[in-house]
Amino acid sequence: MPDLTKDVSSVVQACLNFTDLTLGYDRHPAVHHLNGKVAKGSLLAVVGGNGSGKSTLMKGIAGLLKPMGGTCSIAAGTRLAYLPQQSELDRTFPARVIDLVSLGLWPRRGLLGRHRAEDREAVSRALVAVGLEGFEKRAIDTLSGGQMQRALFARVLVQDADLILLDEPFNAVDEQTILDLIGLVTIWHGEERTVLVVVHDLDLVRAYFPETLLLARHPVAWGPSRQTLSQENLLGARHYREAWNENAPWCAAEASVHGSHGHSHHQDRVKAGAR
Amino acid sequence: MTMVYDALILPFIEFAFMQRALAGAIMLSLSACPVGVFLTLRRMSLTGDAMAHAILPGAAAGFLFYGLEIVPMTIGGLIVGILVALGAGAVARLTVQKEDASMAAFYLISLSLGVLMVSLRGSSVDLMHVLFGTVLALNNDALILIALVSLLTLGMLGIFWRALVAECMDPLFLRSVSRLGSPVHFIFLGLVVTNLVAGFQALGTLLAVGLMILPAAAARFWTQQVAVMCFLAIAIGLVSSVGGLLLSYHVSLPSGPSIMLSAGVFYLVSVVASPRGLLLSRLPRAVHRAA
User: Fold this and answer.
1) How far does B95 lie from chain A, in Å, by closest CA?
2) Does the interface ipTM go beyond 0.95?
3) Neighbouring residues of B155: CB distance < 8 A, sequence distance ≥ 6
4) Membrane-spanning regions, if any (chain B) (predicted)?
5) Do A116 and A199 share a domain, yes or no?
């Protein structure tokens, strides 16, 4: 790796490594030529306007979306937990809270492994941690939005993952719930887990997240939250074209037939706070 | 006492055809009802209906070449059913089209082919037989087939239970922790097809799906746990089968519709009288809990 010498964060083990990562739909990129590393144990906020590629990046990391170009590599042996923005959870499914949270045992027990006493204990501990003690037997279609979010966090807890991806987990959730859930995120950070959270509330980011990635399809800035969220960078992020341009010209990097110059035309746009 | 015995027990002791019918119906209930639970929970009830129609050309092809013989008709139905399930499932998974539209397209093509083939030969009596089955004339071959399908279904459900529940409850979650999502979907569609094929000899292609859907739909009103729902559905299926057979015996009604209508009674009672049904959920409750 030639860039190891330049990269400060390479001292710490990288959990995620983006190399010229381009993700998108129908040949239109939503995340364009992203380069960089996420160190193990970092707590990273991913911010940006609607359509800036935040959710797409999460899907790409979770392996639910194949890259159009470049790679996104996760350190070997990393267990991943992903809480999507638009959950496909069927709330009308006949299940109790405890059944929903027990899904989180899959990485540990898989398809056929018996759920042991310690697993049931882990589930009840998770329910206590998210403040849903006593809700075990409630049907999931009776939960409020906040309670459901707590239950989903409990499932992430049970998954016991090294890399946790949370896509807008604080949407439509009241302040008390946000504080409780942020508390969990902080605990995960303390446990050296790598946590990536898509957030809209910049005050929340400044208060709780050491690092921030500001996306506007391409990375506008990436580094310590205060620097990344400077006026200049935020203005820069606002100027990108959100509009879906059907006839957008082919990206130069792609058009040069897998040219070796790659993504350099975007590198210069990564401003203050970039590594 | 003897009257009850005569009405409920004696027919099954006295007549071999009633015993066969009972055995077939019990085995079908054991496997088709839990499959129906997942079919309804996945909002694929009408897919089941479509699949039941879709297997017709396969059965008709067997019928066309070999007459009213179970083995060729079953194999034909199985092949066409799997083709339609795979085709519709693949279109839904790989293109923008959703499963309801692709399934409707495939089954309509399949059904018209089937009717065309049956009409090429034979009278309307034959068509009636294929469409509505005869549980009172199950032969050994048919019983063995039903037994095999039941065993296969219960085995597969046992092995893939957790994946099936996860795929129904939260498919995106399953995709994020495992690659079983797509395979389990196709395994499930396979089970639907095999159960329909097993059921059509007894109940006909049109009614085979009824034993899947009606008990499951009724069971949903009574429970919040999918496992309990499966057991309830099986129980309702069993009682409906026995009740329907007795009804058809005593009043000389066609057996398939009698069984379906018994299950239909369970469904309607559940709709009206269950805790989450029409009546109780509308009633003003005098007392509620403090929290």
Assistant:
1) 12
2) no
3) none
4) 20-41, 74-92, 104-122, 142-165, 177-194, 200-219, 226-247, 259-279
5) no
